[in-house]
Amino acid sequence: MEAQENIVGFRQSLLVSPETAADIPARDALLDRAMGPRWRKKSSEKLRKGRIPSEGLALIARDASGSVIGTVRLWDVAAGADRRRALLLGPLAVEPTLKSAGIGSELMREAVAEAARLGHTAIILVGDAPYYGRFGFSAEKTGMLAMPGPYEKHRLLALELVPGALDEAHGVIRPTGRKIKRARIAHAV
Q: Domains of the chain, with CATH numbers?
């Protein structure tokens, strides 16, 4: 029971806020610890490379001391041949020593709520269905969509924020978001 009390107390001191430029080094170091240095080689990264997250949809979780302990970002994409507007979620990462403390779940809830509040219609991600299913994601609407590069088809999941947003969507998912200016690329990488 004491461990559960510590988790509850921890959640009360958890702060989810927009990411700032000053957070980038801590965020990237967290991603390296949580996902290994190969996270930059994933197919999803092809859709993010040279782009910045969708306006207002780069979130950081901080502990009581202000340290970055979690991150999630959403990116503007076109879902398929008819270029339906959607978001690509990822990466979602939590400090490895704090896994199972509810930080990832809180980041997911905040990200989905903020995307809906901003008027987005659908979110796509590559991930584990048992984890993301509890937030409403499934492969139901992604059967005719494809990622650029290699990926496991059964892990391509989506959540419609507006019913029907991905009906009959087909083709390759492409990036559409704002591009990083050359001077910022060196700092962001």
A: 2-178 (3.40.630.30)
